[in-house]
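For reproducibility, we list the full input for the WTA complex.
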Amino acid sequence: MSNRIDNLLHEARRFPPTEQFAADAIAGADLYEAAENDRLQFWADRARELLHWHTPFTRTLDWSNPPFAKWFDDGALNVAYNCLDRHVLAGNGDRIALHWEGEPGDSRSYTYSELTSEVKRAANLLTSLGIRQGDRVAIYLPMIPEAVISMLAVARIGAVHSVVFGGFSAESLRSRIDDASAKLVITADGGYRKGSVFPLKQAVDAALAADGESTVSHVLVVKRGGNEVEWTEGRDLWWHDEMVAVDDEHVAKAFPAENPLFILYTSGTTGKPKGILHTSGGYLTQTAFTHRSVFDLHAESDVYWCTADVGWITGHSYVVYGPLANGATQVLYEGTPDSPHPGRWWDIIQKYGVSIFYTAPTAIRSFMKAGRQIPQQFDLSSLRLLGSVGEPINPEAWIWYRDVIGGGETPIVDTWWQTETGAIMVSALPGVTTLKPGSAQVAIPGIQIEVLDDEGHDVGLDSGGLLVVSEPWPSMLRGIWGDPERYKETYWDKFGDKYFAGDGARRDRDGDLWLLGRVDDVMNVSGHRLSTAEIESALVSHPMVAEAAVVGAEDEATGQAVVAFVIVRASQADVATADEASALLRAHVAEQIGAIAKPRTVFLVAELPKTRSGKIMRRLLRDVAEGREVGDTTTLADTQVMQIITDRLK
Ligand code: WTA
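The corresponding predicted structure, in tokenized form, follows.
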């Protein structure tokens, strides 16, 4: 690891902005100055400049009860109004908000006027179903316009959405519905993925059929896949039937700036996903600001495309809230990058003239592997800015991205942030920063980042430490749903009133940040966060498994891959061959959590390496998983264990 980092730190290529780009850029160096002079004033100015406040705020930050922050808290606004109505009122109603492209090739575009009407209708529909301010609504949809419409309709009436990624299992959906006591679920019959329809309604049925009283009174179903669905009379309603029955007039009411906007579940170090809570005014300020300045959005002329699913934070902040608050025209695509042909994404860029493109390193690496001849068949000359998010982008991938996709000219912004931070925290500003491949570079204006050692001292330049955000920021999480203690413990206990992000980082001699991966038991597989503990508990929920340990092993394609070590119960030891057992357990994890959590490899072992206090030494298992010589075993309770494991796996 440290060798690799040293190589990275010697990366010498530099890309300053062209004169033209700098001259036309939305964000200039003056933003850093303004933020340095008066950070709170800087954010207050952004909030006023970028949003419409029904009731202007007078207080910027209340940090009197850390770590519970309040931003702009005596102000009131409506998030959906900010994303829709005000653009129509400003005369931009005919501007396209969404160019939606379905995987099978169908497409629909919505102007800001049309999207506003749809959201107004949906807001009336939700109200007619009894949803009120503060109620939770679970959204389990494919990447179709109704996903965006649902989120904004929930926001419009001051309710709280909890979007669950469509790839998650019925079991994962159930635990999220229960944790938030959702009253309503919005889903679809199915959606398209890799050329066929995957069922969603079926998973909702399974999630709601489980024992115990459900808080869910209705399930709204969008017809998308056309697949057969079962129907529970009185509970299930077709979206299209209900939407025509309601009015498209709806006056947006203002809600306090700290009104909860959404809960989004993410993996932590324990088995139970955390419901990260975000609120309205601060969140929208920072998503709008970063979307505009980091992506240099010229709303009248740019066509923006972020490939993230709305089931992840990137989809919340940079598909829905940031771009729509800024009045952007964007592409929304339902399917996978390679359906029905490996150039589908590039085809879409060509078709809509996409100028700003935001995706993840894992996708870039897979395109690199498939070869440049695929993108080269398409006209990508409309692109003028590229972005990356989710994991470190290695310099080779960065250069390939710029050369092959960006025509050797476009700047690339590598953006570091998290579900918890709500919006981009570290990134270049493309008209200002000289770019350095592989480094996420600098804190955005108004954000304070430090790299500290375990005792909380600054590690200085050129040495590794822990990434910390040292001042509260507008789009910070406001807590973990229903668990304030866990919120404090996870993020704030380590450094007092500084936020501990869980990432390792290093600053080079220019002061640029290099992200070094997670320092906890969270893995990053294809840019998706997975918890070792969560997968371990899925594995041990199978009757065959006595004990399980999961590690993230380096993987060329996915960044990290899930590798599991499993002890099979003696009574079950010969029910299957090792290969069968391992296939069975991989499928079991997919069923319990979702396909993204499926281990790449399941090793059946007789023992697990543990310290005398019983803690599994994952470091040693990672050595095995990555095919390395096993490291220091002297702190093991039984020093022979690793020998037994490696012998068995030979
Ligand atoms: C990682 C995704 C390096 C990091 C927005 C973080 C990154 C976790 C980058 C959050 C980046 C995200 N460079 N690492 N540009 N962006 N990460 O919550 O480990 O799904 O803690 O949010 O992804 O993942 P999450």
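The CA atoms of residues 414 and 440 lie 5 Å apart. The chain has a mean pLDDT of 94. Both points were considered when choosing residues for closer inspection.
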